[in-house]
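A quick aside before the break. I want you to see a complete sequence-to-structure record at least once, exactly as it would be stored in a machine-readable document. Don't worry about memorizing anything.
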Amino acid sequence: MEGGARLVERAVSRPYPTRMPPRRPTALQDTASDDSLVAACLAGDEQAWVDLIGRYGAYIYAVASRAFGLGPGAGDEIFQDVCVRLYDGLAGYAGRSEFRSWLRAVTVSACREYLRREAKHAERSAEAPEPSAELAELETALDVRAAVAALGDPCRRTINLYFYRGLTQAQVAKQLRVPAGTVAARLSRCLRRLRDALQDSGLDPASRE
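That is the input. The structure line, written in tokens, reads:
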């Protein structure tokens, strides 16, 4: 694995992004498990790295902004830091725990170190916040997104277009080339499936720490 400094230099160009890449999911990104993507990254698959960052890039930014209250500039710096740590640390991760838990710990650590550096420069207290509630909400959001992806098409595309991209039912119908009434019926059916899937998985946001 390359050293951190060299990696940041390479990250300006593909395939190691230091900013959140456009959300263009590939088939691999949608269907592969986290550990499968990690294994592919370690085998030298550049697209797997792009897919892995595409899957969790928004989460990294959200931890910085929502959980720690940091601005866009800080978010960019933390994103770069986390990308370097992930790339350098993937071999050490090796499936010893859930990847998302490992990523969360890496991101929180990067945020805390950023705050300590800023506090040192400003000669103020370096005590970082304890954003447990915000982190729990972000974890729940990831669980819901994973459950949506697991529904498969056409539910996945319909829910993503309507809820995550904010399109109207008419716009969704145009995108999917189906009647508007089909979209309404499909949303109702797919949301029932999503609710049942979340209940079956035992997802309980109130239980998050």
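Two observations worth writing down. Residues 1-130 form a domain with the Rna Polymerase Sigma Factor; Chain: A fold (CATH 1.10.1740.10). The CA atoms of residues 43 and 54 lie 18 Å apart. We'll return to this after the break.
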